């Protein structure tokens, strides 16, 4: 057990212990503070104090995330080009929708990008072919179906930080997800649990009981089942600036079909990449990336992307402002 630390001064900069704590939460968002403290070799009070500080300085949130693919649903990435005077309003409206998980302003404030998780084909068509197409001052809408994820979801960028030793990670890692061949079906009680967890992944059993009207044992069993089948996992949401990431960019890579798998695997291994997936459309792969500065972005494009066989063209779009990441935060 390490020496008890003094109360840290308010700061947005994250130190090594903060990073290890974030990685602990990424591995198991519902891990008890006592287990996290044991893994990190610090006191329970230190972990609790750090969490409080991170919630303030880095806007830390642990959120439950639904893996739509396990329910037979399809994810979409939508790009909307619009006039500058409506971009923020449009982004805000999309962020408030429950079927969006990511919304950002890019490309000089004339483009909004969002990740959509429509619950049905009817909901998808109503949004893509009706509502968005008729929205005033929206110049164009392009929708790209996510065909295959190379990195992202349960494989979060924090896993590349290497803040924890393998034995520390193993002490926190939940049981492996069961293989599923057919889409799963959620019951009303499952939906009620998820409605709470997507807002607060560390909601107490008492709060989950109140939301479902079921006993603690039933709540635990349903929660364990959704985690075991991969329907539910937990993600950590926080500001990137305290980690020194001043530049965020979306890369749209035009890739020869025969090279999609190789390029995707290469991107997944790059520390700059937070998310990478094969999509429909002219750009066969989209990737979300982070850098300390624009010089690092240039180096990444010229040296790492430029060295990948099969990449024919790259469109780079800087993220000007993140409006929604998993859960809508009007204070962002």
Task: Please characterize this protein's 3D structure.
The protein is an alpha+beta fold and 332 residues long. Among the domains are: 79 residues, Lrp/AsnC effector binding domain/regulation of amino acid metabolism (RAM) domain (Alpha-Beta Plaits); 91 residues, Alpha-Beta Plaits (2-Layer Sandwich); 52 residues, Arc Repressor Mutant, subunit A (Orthogonal Bundle), CATH 1.10.10. It has eleven helices and eleven strands. The strands form two sheets. The chain has an eight-stranded antiparallel beta barrel. A two-stranded antiparallel ribbon has the order 1-6. The longest helix has 14 residues. It is globular and about 50 Å long. The two termini are 37 Å apart.
Query: Could you report the average pLDDT, rounded to the nearest whole number?
Result: 89
Give a quick account of the main beta sheet: strands, pairing sense, barrel closure: 8 strands, antiparallel, barrel
Task: Choose one word for the global shape.
Answer: globular
**How many helix segments?**
11
The helix/strand class is: alpha+beta
Helix content: 25-40%
Radius of gyration: 20 Å
CATH homologous group name of the domain at 150-158 and 242-323: Lrp/AsnC effector binding domain/regulation of amino acid metabolism (RAM) domain
Q: In sequence order, what are the helices and strands, one letter per element?
A: HHHEEHEEHEHHHHEEHEEHEE
CATH topology of the domain at 150-158 and 242-323: Alpha-Beta Plaits
What portion of the residues fall into strands of 2 or more residues? 25-35%
Low-confidence stretches: 6-10
CATH architecture of the domain at 150-158 and 242-323: 2-Layer Sandwich
Strand arrangement across the biggest beta sheet? 2-4-3-10-7-9-8-5
Distance between the termini: 37 Å
State the total count of DSSP E strands: 11
CATH class of the domain at 150-158 and 242-323: Alpha Beta
Domain HTH asnC-type: 14-74, 186-246
Protein name: Transcriptional regulator
Keywords: DNA-binding, Transcription, Transcription regulation
InterPro entries: AsnC-type_HTH_dom, Dimeric_a/b-barrel, Tscrpt_reg_AsnC-like, Tscrpt_reg_AsnC/Lrp_C, WH-like_DNA-bd_sf, WH_DNA-bd_sf
């Amino acid at each position: 057990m390490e020496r008890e630390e003094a109360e840290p001064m308010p700061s947005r900069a994250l130190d090594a212990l903060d990073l290890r704590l974030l990685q602990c939460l990424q591995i198991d968002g519902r891990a008890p503070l006592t287990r996290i403290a044991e893994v990190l070799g610090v006191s329970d009070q230190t972990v609790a104090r750090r969490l409080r500080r991170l919630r303030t300085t880095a806007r830390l949130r642990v959120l439950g995330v639904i893996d739509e693919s396990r329910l037979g649903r399809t994810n979409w990435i939508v790009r909307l080009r619009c006039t500058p005077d409506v971009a923020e309003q449009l982004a805000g409206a999309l962020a408030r929708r429950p079927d969006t998980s990511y919304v950002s302003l890019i490309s000089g404030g004339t483009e909004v990008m969002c990740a959509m998780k429509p619950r049905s084909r009817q909901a998808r068509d109503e949004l893509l072919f009706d509502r968005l197409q008729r929205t005033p001052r929206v110049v164009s809408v392009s929708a790209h179906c996510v065909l295959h994820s190379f990195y992202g979801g349960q494989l979060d960028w924090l896993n590349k930080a290497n803040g924890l030793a393998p034995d520390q990670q193993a002490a926190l890692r939940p049981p492996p997800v069961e293989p599923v061949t057919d889409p799963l079906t959620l019951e009303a009680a499952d939906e009620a649990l998820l409605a709470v967890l997507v807002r607060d992944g560390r909601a107490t059993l008492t709060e989950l009981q109140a939301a479902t009207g079921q006993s603690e044992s039933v709540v635990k069993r349903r929660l364990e089942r959704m985690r075991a089948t991969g329907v539910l996992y937990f993600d950590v949401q926080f500001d990137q600036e305290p980690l020194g990431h001043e530049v965020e960019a979306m890369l749209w890579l035009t890739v020869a079909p025969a090279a999609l798998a190789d390029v995707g695997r290469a991107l997944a291994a790059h520390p700059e990449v937070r998310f990478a997936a094969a999509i429909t459309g002219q750009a066969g792969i989209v990737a979300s990336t982070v850098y300390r500065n624009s010089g690092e972005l240039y180096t990444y494009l010229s040296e790492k992307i430029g060295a990948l066989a099969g990449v024919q063209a790259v469109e780079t779009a800087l993220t000007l402002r993140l409006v929604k990441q998993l859960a809508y935060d009007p204070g962002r």
